[in-house]
C-alpha cells in the first residue's frame, strides 16, 4: 500500500513540476456528461496527494480496528476452548481415580468440545450408575449419538435397560467375524433379559470362540442355573455338551445345593473332597446350600480335617454343611476357627445363621460392624 502511494505521489510531483520546467503553468480539464472540472496542475496534484493520504489513513484505521476485533475474538474463543478442554481432562482423570463426585462437578455444568460430547454423556452416566441412579444414567445414555451407542453397551447393561443396544448387538454377535467383546456383550444381554433358550443355543459359539474367561463363564452359568426350575436342573445340565459341562459343573452343583438337593449331588461333592485343588470350590458350593442331607460328606470332611486341621477351605465347607444339617452349634464352633477378615464377607450369611441359631446374637451382630 505504501509503495502504491509513493508511486502516485511521484507521478503527481512529476506532473506538477513538468510544466514549470518548460515554462508553462499547466492546466487539468476533466469533463464527463454535463460536468466539467478545471484547475491548475498544481492544485490537481495537491488534491491527489490529499486523497491518497486520506485513503492511507483510512486503511490504517480499518486495519487497526480489525486487528483489535480479531485479537479480542481469538482470546475469547481461546479461553472458551481452554475451559472445555480443562473440563474433559478433569472428567477423565476423575474417572481414572474413581472419583465420581468430582467427575460430576467437572462435567455436569461445563460444556465440552463437540467431538467429546458423547464421552461426556457416557462418563456422567457412569457416575450416575455408581450413585445407583439408573434413571439419570439412562437419561444421559439417551443423549449419546446413534453411531456411538454400542460403545456404551456395558453402561446400558448396568442401567438395567439393554433394549436400546439389543438389536445391534444381536446382529454383530451373529456375524461370522464377531469379536469376543461383541459375543460377550450379547451374552450379557441374554442373561439380563432372561432369554435362557437363546442363551442355550448361543453358549456353544461362546465356547468355540473363547469369548469368556473362566470367571466370566462362572458368572454366566451361575445366573443360568439359578434361574432354572429346580425340577429341571439336572436335565438342563445333562443337555450341555461335554466341554460346557466342565465349565458348568460347579455352577450346577451350587444350584442343586441351593435347592436343598444335597443327597443327589453328594457323590460329586465327595469326589471334589478327594482333590485338594477343588477344596475351595467345594466350600463355594456349600456356601449357598439350603437345608439338606449329605451325612457321608460331613463324616468325610471331619475325617479329612483330623489329618489337616488348619485347612481353611475344608473348615468353611464343614461349617456350611453343618448349617444345612441343622447342627448350628457345630457350625458356630467351626466358624470361630475358620472366619478371617478376608473370607468373613463371603461367608457372612452362613456365619450369622450359625451364631443366631446357637444363641450367640452378639457374634452375629459383630459381623455387621
UniProtKB/TrEMBL annotation:
Which Pfam families does the entry link to?
HemY_N
Keywords attached to this Swiss-Prot or TrEMBL record, sorted alphabetically, are: Membrane, Transmembrane, Transmembrane helix
* Membrane spanning residue stretches: 39-59
Taking every annotated instance into account, which residue ranges of this chain make up the domain HemY N-terminal? 26-131
Q: Which top-rank group of organisms is this from? A: Bacteria
Report the locations given in the UniProt record.
Membrane
- Supply the SUPFAM superfamilies for this chain: TPR-like
The molecule here is called Heme biosynthesis protein HemY
Q: Which InterPro entries match?
A: HemY_N (IPR010817), TPR-like_helical_dom_sf (IPR011990)
What Gene3D superfamilies does the record tag this protein with?
Tetratricopeptide repeat domain
Amino acid at each position: 500500500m505504501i509503495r502504491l502511494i509513493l508511486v502516485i505521489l511521484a507521478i503527481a510531483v512529476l506532473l506538477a513540476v513538468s510544466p514549470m520546467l518548460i515554462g508553462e503553468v499547466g492546466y487539468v480539464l476533466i469533463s464527463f456528461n454535463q460536468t466539467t472540472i478545471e484547475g491548475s496542475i498544481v492544485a490537481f496534484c495537491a488534491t491527489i496527494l490529499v486523497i491518497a493520504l486520506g485513503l492511507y489513513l483510512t486503511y490504517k484505521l480499518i486495519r487497526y480496528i480489525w486487528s483489535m476485533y480479531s485479537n479480542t475474538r481469538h482470546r475469547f474463543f481461546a479461553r472458551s476452548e481452554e475451559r472445555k478442554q480443562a473440563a474433559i481432562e478433569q472428567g477423565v482423570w476423575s474417572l481414572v481415580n474413581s472419583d465420581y463426585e468430582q467427575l460430576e462437578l467437572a462435567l455436569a455444568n461445563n460444556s465440552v468440545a463437540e467431538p467429546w460430547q458423547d464421552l461426556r454423556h457416557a462418563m456422567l452416566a457412569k457416575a450416575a450408575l455408581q450413585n445407583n441412579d439408573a434413571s439419570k444414567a439412562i437419561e444421559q445414555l439417551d443423549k449419546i449419538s446413534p453411531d456411538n451407542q454400542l460403545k456404551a453397551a456395558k453402561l446400558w447393561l448396568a442401567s438395567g435397560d439393554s433394549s436400546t443396544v439389543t438389536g445391534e448387538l444381536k446382529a454383530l454377535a451373529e456375524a461370522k467375524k464377531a469379536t469376543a467383546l461383541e459375543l460377550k456383550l450379547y451374552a450379557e444381554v441374554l442373561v439380563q433379559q432372561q432369554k435362557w433358550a437363546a442363551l442355550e443355543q448361543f453358549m456353544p459359539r461362546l465356547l468355540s470362540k473363547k469369548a469368556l474367561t473362566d470367571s466370566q463363564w462362572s458368572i454366566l452359568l451361575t445366573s443360568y442355573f439359578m434361574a432354572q426350575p429346580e425340577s429341571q436342573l439336572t436335565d438342563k445340565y445333562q443337555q450341555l455338551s461335554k466341554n460346557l459341562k466342565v465349565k458348568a459343573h460347579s455352577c450346577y452343583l451350587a444350584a442343586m445345593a441351593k435347592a436343598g438337593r444335597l443327597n443327589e449331588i453328594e457323590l460329586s461333592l465327595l469326589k471334589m473332597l478327594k482333590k485338594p485343588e477343588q477344596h475351595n470350590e467345594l466350600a463355594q458350593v456349600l456356601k449357598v446350600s439350603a437345608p439338606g442331607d449329605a451325612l457321608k460328606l460331613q463324616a468325610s470332611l471331619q475325617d479329612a480335617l483330623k489329618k489337616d486341621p488348619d485347612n481353611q477351605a475344608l473348615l468353611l465347607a464343614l461349617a456350611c454343611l453343618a448349617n444345612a444339617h441343622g447342627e448350628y452349634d457345630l457350625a458356630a464352633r467351626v466358624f470361630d476357627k475358620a472366619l478371617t477378615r478376608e473370607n468373613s464377607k463371603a461367608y457372612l450369611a452362613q456365619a450369622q445363621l450359625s451364631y443366631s441359631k446357637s444363641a450367640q446374637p452378639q457374634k452375629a451382630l459383630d459381623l455387621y460392624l
